[in-house]
UniProtKB/TrEMBL annotation:
It comes from Sphingobium wenxiniae (strain DSM 21828 / CGMCC 1.7748 / JZ-1). Residues 10-134 form the NAD-dependent epimerase/dehydratase domain. It comes from the Bacteria. This is NAD-dependent epimerase/dehydratase family protein. It holds the Pfam family Epimerase. Gene3D superfamilies: NAD(P)-binding Rossmann-like Domain.
């Protein structure tokens, strides 16, 4: 098994094909349309911006290699992350970390759209389960998330409750983000801005039907775990 990154994906596919190695590929949703339509494994690609086009190219080449029986692989796709430790995500850097530090959280464009977020330990557990399931290969899988989706307003209030803090946040306007007034993690998300203006509905029903005993972490539980880890430092 392996994990491919943009830039070396062709070499990874070729190496797996030559050596008969199975590939478990960790992917995101940058290539999906940035609309409020529900996202499933069959959602067509409609990338917006350079990052989306790169991700679409990688996913398409992997699917083509699978269709041509060059290798046995699976594509494991996730929405936006949140999680403990050094999780690198917009939600962690713009919301969770500032709140833990007693600062003001930042939200892109709107605070009232529904967000689908995946807890990083859930993504790891789900990939391990898929990778060890022989009939899960040669498919795309959406990894499991809590379907009780929150707005960022609700997420911030829940995080602040866990911290015993005030739910202070600022809604950033498009011009502030495009102007690059904030850190590099936030600036790099500029091409994804349209998806923050609408509900983000990432559907993982296929995984949940195949693995009904897998329990996705609820947002309250995930945030409580993150807060405990942060405050122990």
């Amino acid at each position: 098994m392996g994990r491919a990154m943009a830039g070396d994906h062709e070499n990874v596919i070729d190496a797996c094909a030559v050596h008969g190695a199975k590939l478990v590929f960790f992917d995101n949703t940058y290539m999906y349309p940035q609309t409020a339509d529900a996202q499933t494994e069959s959602t067509p690609f409609l990338p917006y911006g350079a990052k989306g086009r790169v991700r679409a190219t990688i996913a398409e080449e992997l699917l083509t290699a699978i269709d041509r029986n060059r290798l046995s692989a699976m594509n494991c796709r996730t929405p936006e992350f949140y999680g403990p430790g050094k999780t690198q995500s917009i939600t962690n850097s713009a919301i969770i970390e500032p709140l833990v530090q007693g600062k003001t959280a930042r939200v892109f464009l709107r605070d009232d759209t529904l967000r689908t977020l995946i807890y990083t330990p859930d993504a790891s557990r789900a990939m391990a389960m898929l990778g060890n399931t022989s009939d899960a290969y040669d498919q795309t899988w959406h990894l499991p998330c809590d379907d009780d989706r929150l707005t960022y307003r609700g997420f911030i209030h829940l995080a602040a409750e866990q911290l015993g803090a005030q739910p202070r946040y600022q809604v950033l306007k498009r011009w502030q983000l495009v102007a690059g007034l904030f850190n590099s993690t936030i600036r790099d998300a500029a091409e994804l801005l349209p998806r923050y203006a609408v509900d983000n509905i990432f559907v993982s029903d296929k995984f949940k039907a195949r693995f009904p005993d897998f329990r996705a972490t609820r947002y309250r539980e995930g945030l409580a775990s993150i807060v405990r880890a942060q405050t122990r430092r």
